[in-house]
Amino acid sequence: MADSDCVVVMGSNMAENHPVAFRWPMQAKAKGAKIIHVDPRFTRTSSVADLYAPVRAGSDIAFLGGIINHVLNSEKWNNDPFFKTFVVNYTNAATIINEDFKDTEELNGVFSGLLQSKGGLDEWPFNGFINQYDGASWQYAGTKAGEQGRAASTAQSGEAIVSSGPEGTKSSAMPKAAASKAPAGPPFDSLVTSLVKPPAQRDETLENPRCVFQIVKKHFARYTPEMVEKTTGCPKETFLKVAETILANSGADRTTSFAYAVAWTQHTYGVQIIGACALLQLLLGNIGRPGAGVMALRGHASIQGSTDVPTLYHSIQGYMAAPTALKKHDTLEDYLAAETLPTGYWANMPKFVVSYLKSIYGDAATKENQFGWDWHPKILGDHSHMAMFVAMNAGKVRGMFCVGQNPATSVNAKLERSGLRKLEWLVVKDNWITETATFWKNAPEVRKGEVKTADIKTEVFFVPATQVGEVEGTFTNTQRLLQFHHKAAEAPGDCRSDTWFYYEIGKRLKKLYAQSNEPRDEGFKNLVWDYEHEDDNERKKGEPSALKILKEINGFQSGDPGKHVAGFGELKDDGSTTCASWIYSGVYPGAGKNLADRRTPDAPGQPGAQLNWGWAWPANRRIMYNRASADPTGKPWSEKKKWVWWDAEQKRWAGYDVPDYIATKPPTDKAKPGTAGMDALPGTAPFIMRPDGLGWLFVPAGLVDGPLPTHYEPVESPVANPLYKQQTSPVFKYWKDTGNELAKMGDPKFPHVLTTYRLTEHYLAGGMSRWLPWLTELQPELFVEISPELAQEKGIKNLDWCRISSPRTQVRAKALVTRRMRPFNIDGKVVHQVGMPWHWGYEGLVTGDVVNELTSLIADPNVSMHEGKAFVCNVEKA
Questions:
Q1: Rounded distance, CA 672 to CA 116, Å?
Q2: Tens digit of pLDDT for each residue in 493-505?
Q3: CA angle (17, 21, 22) in 5-degree steps
Q4: In whole angstroms, what separates CA 656 from the centre of its chain?
Q5: pLDDT of the residue at 153
Q6: N or C: at which end does the chain have fewer Cβ atoms within 10 angstroms?
Q7: How many CB atoms lie within 10 A of CB 493?
């Protein structure tokens, strides 16, 4: 981002919530770059921006769609050859789409393939779908559903028809204790090759009405500056300044980057907001180049790491789909046939999966038993946070380990606490006593006498946890950078690390099942679980070795554990290699070579990627898809933005960064139809994890809510959708339950838009900050930010107590009357926006009402993310 000519911060208050990362946009600004902030509130990020654009919460796609429309109709974009060269060669703009596809323009705001669905609480597991799409008509012309996107594309729903079987069908097969048939491999080369389909039809003139470019152009034509103002509340003149600044800072020798955070993700169409930005950046040639890209600002030090080596239910290591009982995953061959993309780099998936299984089951994983495939757990549907708590509230969950999370203050917190009361047992592991640990005695409903402690049967265990400075290990930060951290202090009392906790549970479970003859217990009996610490003192405490775990993640030769693999290029599908997480392979290529522990910067003024500071996945590449930083012939687009290029003398890719490409594949290499892997792609295809090697403007597979971003209103909104007859996403998730009621559009009882956010001085629900006197002095009380106009209308003065209500409940907070908030004119109606931080609860040195009690259990259908950034409320003087 320090190399950007323009930085757009949207969906984030980067200066306050990611202050360390914000140093890089500020370095860019010091070199002359423009900073743009698009947000409902005027914040510290806004204060240092060259342009601030106010928008109503939840209207981001309308704003981004307006920029896309502006770009496509601009003189610069249509006359500068850079843009068309990038778009034709590096995106799917020229690809022809199935003739059965119907866009929102033709169907009043929905796409073809919309089906009615049960969802909700009708059956277990509770998937929450109100409707679903069948995406067969979204495919490239001449292909069938699923052929464009199997691997790593399974939505969290686990039941969405568009992301199910290879032909778009569903399977109700349940996990089996024994294989139903013998495996085909290894090696699995013939299986992968059998999956290859003919290449897609293309029109590189971009004139065919069914080509992606024409569909995109038509789709966004209604997103005019006037419509943007009507929908977002941003003045037309301000919007046009933003669009022109981004366009002026994009091209062969200028790049613009975007940064977003949870203000984009926490919507029922959050994935589509990010997709709209990616679409815009592809149109502008701002992907895979220095100073370009879309930066996801993760919530703390290793949130990126916890999705790479996942704590997510729907994926296994390295973004591979979790085996599921809802598809034909009965055998390893079935799974690979259903999930492998045969063209592009994902064709190597069998090597990644087999090495992953060898990591789990070691020598017990053999070709004859499909490398232990039948021992691996399978998911049954939506096991995400909200679905889990709905099931818990219905009495379907017996116990829970709650580690580093505080659901008693989470989404629709009152309902989630109701779920906790129905557990048989609960283990809470945290640094301090959190609200979740004491819900049975200190929750508001208990203190008010609505619930009696004596009636709560849940047995609660509290396990004190270490702080990060009291253990060693790695962080993986926002930019995929692994950095090793060393132990700085001994933990007090009986505090234990998370690694100790899980390692100890694993050892005890292995002991528990050691004498079992049940086929279902073979997985525990064969589990590789030997990470004893090298240091005698640490070993006596039971602390496992972080380096041994890192070695397991990196991978090694199965027959020679002392021989680490140098990277994922060495992985095999015959059982000869073990690797827990293929994307991290290379971080620890040999004994004494922990590359995450490096701290050597580049020389001042030297153009480079800081390759000797830590280690970034994949393969220490600092900019993903950096083949796009060179033109189709392999030459840099410009000297200023030079990054990776084809060295004709050496006959390989070279540059300041590690090339994100096959090192010796020349730009002149032609695609070989009928072949698998990278041979199927030409040397001009930068996006090697896509089956066609192209960036997708139009998404034919992998998303369950449509192939193009479309503006829908939040599920709770005070206004009608100005753009389409369809009010909300037709496929959002909603768990209809007592205490999870929703407001109808324009409900006069809840006329205002509420958004929640974080403060610099506190962290999440306060479990790590409200126990520290220095921080509680800085931000001691819960408050609600309201505009002077709303304050005058309601008779509220600064510091007055206010009552904020939603269809779920009400909370109390002090009024902060400020011009940082402003009313919006939305299609002729004045809409007031209010904001609340959500750091308080009933434990800690300072306490306050739980703001998340106002929120509802509704979700994005792709990833089951809640809509905490835009819902309705009322504000009254209390």
A1: 42
A2: 999 999 999 999 9
A3: 75
A4: 28
A5: 40
A6: C
A7: 6
Whole-angstrom Cα distance, residue 264 to residue 709? 13
Hey, which residues does 462 pair with through a beta bridge?
Answer: 428
Q: Beta 425-430 vs 459-464: how paired, if at all?
A: parallel
pLDDT for the residue numbered 123? 61
Counting every residue written for the chain, the total comes to 878
Q: Which residues contact 717 (CB under 8 A, 6 or more apart)?
A: 58, 727, 728, 745, 746, 753, 870, 872
Spatial CB neighbours of 643, under 8 Å, sequence gap ≥ 6: 289, 290, 623, 626, 629, 630, 636, 655, 656, 657
pLDDT at position 148 is 61
- The contacts of residue 89 (CB under 8 Å, 6+ apart) are 632, 684
Which tokens in the block code for residue 33? 């770059």
Strands 399-403 and 425-430: parallel
Interaxial angle between packed helices 81-90 and 270-283, expressed in degrees from 0 to 180 and rounded to the nearest 10: 130
CA distance 231 to 543: 55
Q: Amino acid letter at 294?
A: V
- What is the per-residue pLDDT for 164? 29
676 contacts 189 by C-beta, under 8 angstroms? yes
Q: Are 559 and 567 in contact (CB under 8 A)?
A: no
The whole-number pLDDT of residue 125 equals: 60
Pair 220, 69: CB distance under 8 Å = yes
SS3 category, 629? helix
CA distance 87 to 128: 37
3-state SS track over 654-723: EECCCCCCCCCCCCCCCCCCCCCEHHHCCCCCCCCCCCCCCECCCCCCCCCCCCCCCCCCCCCCCCCCCC
With 0-12 CB in 10 A as exposed, 13-18 as middle and 19+ as buried, what is 517? exposed
Which amino acid type is present at position 797?
K
Reduce the DSSP state of residue 543 to 3 states and report it.
coil
How far, CA to CA in Å, does 777 sit from each of 200, 435, 693, 842? Answer: 61, 20, 53, 17
Q: What pLDDT score does 90 carry?
A: 98
Token pair of 120 as six digits: 């909700």
For the range 631-639, what are the long-range contacts, defined as Cβ-Cβ under 8 Å and sequence gap of 24 or more? 631/85, 632/85, 632/89, 632/667, 632/684, 633/667, 634/666, 634/667, 634/683, 637/82, 637/252, 637/253, 637/285, 637/289, 638/252, 638/253, 639/253
Q: How far apart are CA 529 and CA 811, in angstroms?
A: 47
* CB count in 10 Å sphere of residue 270: 24
Ranges under pLDDT 50 in the chain: 119-120, 151-183
Quote the DSSP letter at residue 293: S
- For residue 288, the model assigns a pLDDT of 98
pLDDT of residue 299: 75
CA distance 34 to 50: 6
Are 276 and 68 contacting, i.e. CB atoms less than 8 angstroms apart? yes
Token output for 661: 């490409």
pLDDT at position 410 is 95
